[in-house]
Amino acid sequence: MQLDFFPSRTLTIYLAKMFVVRILAVLVMLVLVLMMLDLLSSSGEILAVEGNGQGELLTYAGLRIPQLIQRFLPYSVLLATIITLVTLNQNSEVIAMKAAGLSAHQVLAPLLLTAALVSALSFAFNERVVTSATATLKAWEAAEWGEVPQQSNVKANVYLTDGESILSAASIAGSGDAITMTNVTWYDRSDGGLISEQVRAPRATFANPGWRLENATRFDVAAAQTEQLGELVVGRGLTPGQIDLDTIDPDALSFFELSDSIAAYEAVGRRTSEMRAKWWHKLSGPLSAFLMPLLGAVAAFGLARSGMLFVRALIGMALGFAYFVIDNAALAMGSFGGYPPFLAAWAPFFLFLLVGETVLIRTEE
């Protein structure tokens, strides 16, 4: 009986290399197919803007591909796990390894180690690349695919409240007194909560107090009349500090930047459940790749000639996809306050860790 968790060095390198090649192959295939489908649906809107051409399409692809890699890397690890284990099983290599005295966990150990390294690389990639690409892409979309925003702190599709009235902006750039809003709409609800007038402006800046709408156009709801106003100051109760807090996008912030934002929210007594859940998920999300070899392990064992290999592969895929469904549902519940943030981010991970271990031990150990 071997007490080492890993098999021999040669076998570990052999299995790890096979696994890595299949992860990369599946990931490239998924990203290319999904990117082409995405371009088919988005290229019309991008090219409809005067001056946009092939360069803007390449820019869009460069910003969208990191998001696709982030989302589908765990799926790639799952599919690569099943392909690798099915291949080993069909070639009787699993039987040979078990005949040499290796346990099921030792057979899976090189795959688990590789998946752990993939999780670490995924976390670093998300922090350094995905957050920046997400912020830029959202700001560009809010600018209706016009000029690509050059500022890194641009927020898109922002809604702010001043009492019962609402101030919305397609994008906000800058911070403090230098905040600039574009494509702004002011909904005046001072008359019993109903919208009495709607004011639109292409740009707004801080007027101290309030926000100065430039080239504003007012629509009187009761009279159904439109009036050109020039400049108008609204939202006198909205301060730059409040806007800096209200425009936080967890998906566009790194782990440590989001930590600072959560601390700022808690300092002023604001609700942080949604941000806290996504903060925890920045750790549990990349770590989901570590689970995939364990959930797909059922495809590694059982005789190929028994006719059950295909069924085992389907069971492995079902376990993996069930994890993603439950993980997304738990995160949504955490965002709404239905689950505590820590439970929303980590409960699916530990649940399926136990499920995968139980299936492996009951069937193979």
Automatic annotation (TrEMBL):
Cellular localization per UniProt: Cell membrane
InterPro entries per record: LptG, LptG/LptF_permease
Keyword Transmembrane helix: yes
Superkingdom of origin organism: Bacteria
Coiled-coil annotated spans: none
Residues making up the signal peptide according to the UniProt record: none
Pfam families, A to Z: LptF_LptG (PF03739)
Keywords: Cell membrane, Membrane, Transmembrane, Transmembrane helix
Membrane topology: Multi-pass membrane protein
GO BP term, pick one: lipopolysaccharide transport
Transmembrane spans: 12-37, 72-88, 108-125, 283-303, 309-326, 338-361
A GO cellular component entry from the record: ATP-binding cassette (ABC) transporter complex
PANTHER family: LIPOPOLYSACCHARIDE EXPORT SYSTEM PERMEASE PROTEIN LPTG, SLR0882 PROTEIN-RELATED
NCBIfam families linked: LptG_lptG
Protein name (Swiss-Prot/TrEMBL): Lipopolysaccharide export system permease protein
Biological source species: Altererythrobacter xiamenensis
